[in-house]
Each structure stands twice: as structure tokens, then as C-alpha cells.
Amino acid sequence: MSTVSGELRVVVEADGGSRGNPGPAGYGAVVKDESGEVLLERYAGLGTTTNNVAEYSGLIAGLRAAAELNATRVDVRMDSKLVIEQMSGRWQIKNPGLRPLAAEAAGLVARFRAVTFEWIPRDRNRDADALANRAMDEAAGRVPRDAAARVPQEKGTAAPKSWAPPSLDNATRLILVRHGATAMTAQGRYSGRGDVPLTEEGEAQAMAAAGRVAGLSRDVAAVLTSPLTRCVRTGELIAAEVGGVPVTVMDDLIECDFGLWEGKTFAEVQEAWPREMTAWLESTSVAPPEGESFQAVAKRVRGALAKILQAYPGQVIVVVSHVTPIKLILRDALAAGDAFLHRLFLDAAGVSTMDVWPDGNIAVRSVNETAHLR
């Protein structure tokens, strides 16, 4: 490392990424001396957010690491043109969601005697990029723990924290509704791709959910639904209650394919496929025989959510789907682990609400509301 007259000069290479934009995100930062020797590394997952938020988070983590080393001069190198130009003062920060992050970074910059910002091509930022991808892989459960342990991890997110209620300006509100009950629901059977209709009770539940949705907002822009009859019918009842808004089918909102377990109870599956059931409960990468894993469901549901946020920015959207897709959406929104999927119960016609901002920030307002069903 370079030390002249009591000064320590370091290089900070930082990066961040999001698989979906917004989607599962992470950042990486490397502090090096001028010879290229690595002094410190930082990386962490960020839950669901955007590329730009992840990139700023990487910068903040790198500056914090440089401060830990008592560096006095820092050369920041990133392949994010937006972050480099905004931190250099040449570009305005038009996205209000990025301003708190830029302000936090500027506060860290003020601790050093001098900080320079340089854009570099991605192939020169491989170390930070690899750490950001490692963070995303670990969050998805794709990196062995012994491999992860080789890199020091900075826990937590660099996003601003506040107890103040977030402003709804520019937020897209998602009202997540599970379909009403079917005959399979009442019997506790795995109900995936089988196209079973609502029962009479299910129709009543769907109408009650429609009333709850109308109470939440009369400004619903669209109702998006799984292609299966039980969801489409639930969506139609909701759409009629909120003013006849369009009902649009999205194939990727369909339930998990339970394969050979379709139509069977938990006890029946446990008796016939004990090893397969144990493996399925222990890992989201395992699929039922001839079925679909939760990881596969999560991938398509994230894609659907990204399309929704792009198509309906700042609007109120009702999403009518099934247990698995809704659980996965809430898991990602709450930055929870896979155990969340087995601990959360979603009632037929239960309603959950969340807000998503353009910068990827998320506020979960409610989970599995059922008061309207009593």
C-alpha cells in the first residue's frame, strides 16, 4: 500500500447487480493498494431491488471499508456510468430513490482528504462483479457455505433506514389475492395445475375478497390472474366490484406443478414418497416427481412481477394467484429465507398488500388478511 507523509492511498472497486431489475440483488466491493493487492472485501445480498440501488450499495460498502483502513485518499473505480457521473457531479440524480444513497456516499467521501471517481469497463471490474454475483448466488442458495466463508461478508443493506411511514409517491401497489376455496382446498389436497372450479363457499369467499379489495382502493388499474379457472373467476368477481376493470391472464402466475402428487394429501404423499417428500421439504431446488421445484416457480414469478412493475408504474394492481407464487413474492419482498415458505399460511381468498417503488424499495403492508371472510 502507498503511504507518503502519513497518507494512505487505496483503490476501491465496487459493483452491484440485480437479476430482474428489480429482482434479487447484491453488491461487491474490493479495497486494494496501488499495486493491486487486496486489502479488504465486502459483499452482501440486498433482497429485491434494482441495479442502481445495488451499485450505490457497493460504493458505500467500499468507502466504509476504506475508512476502516484509515485511508486518506481513495480512487473509486466502477463500471457504472450512472454512479460515477452522479458522484462526480456531472449528472443530476433524477431518481428520488437514489438520492438518500448518494447522500450517504457523499457523507463518506467527506471523511477522506481526496476521492476520485473513474469509470472502468466491466472486464476491469471483475473482482467486485464476482463478489456481487456471489452475494446473489448465496441468497439463492447456490453457493456452498464453505466457499462463502472464504470471503468476509458485511451484513445488512446500505439502504436508508427509517421508522417514518414511506411516501406513496411513484409506488406501485400490489394487492395479492389467493383464489377462493375449491373441493381440493377443503380436503387438504395438493392442487397445482389441475383446473378445478370454485365451490359455492369459494364463490362467497371471492366476493368477500372483492369487497376488501374495493375497500383498499377504488383506483385499481387492472386485475392480473393465473390462467386456472379458480383464479380467473376470483379475478372476475374482484374486477366487477372495483368498476369493471380489465382482467388479464398471466401464465407465469400459475401454481406450482406438483407432478405425481397432484390431488393427494400430505399424508398420502408422505406414505408413498417418504424420501422424496423429505428432500422436497429441505430444499427449494427439489421438485416433486414429474413436477416443478419452488426455485423454478420463483424464477417465473419474478419475471412476471418485473413485467407488472414495468407495465403499471405507480398504479394499483390486483394479482390473483395461488399459495406458492404469493408466498414466493412475499418471501422476496421481506428478504426472508426459504424457511418462510413453510411457516406462512395463506387462507383461501386471503389478501396481502405491498408497495414497490421505482428504485426497488418495498413496503409490505399486510399479509393474509382474512377479516372479510368472517
TrEMBL record:
Membrane spanning stretches: none
GO cellular component annotations of the record: cytoplasm
GO MF: nucleic acid binding; phosphatase activity; RNA-DNA hybrid ribonuclease activity
SUPFAM superfamilies hit by this protein: Phosphoglycerate mutase-like, Ribonuclease H-like
CDD domains xrefs: HP_PGM_like, RNase_HI_like
UniProt xrefs under Pfam families: His_Phos_1 (PF00300), RVT_3 (PF13456)
InterPro entries hit by this protein: His_Pase_superF_clade-1, His_PPase_superfam, PGM_Phosphatase, RNaseH-like_sf, RNaseH/PGlycerate_mutase, RNaseH_domain, RNaseH_sf
Segments for region (Disordered): 142-164
Source domain of life: Bacteria
Catalytic residue positions: 179, 255
Domain RNase H type-1: 6-145
Binding site residues for substrate: 230
SMART domains registered for this protein in UniProt: PGAM
Protein name: Bifunctional RNase H/acid phosphatase
Source species: Actinoplanes siamensis
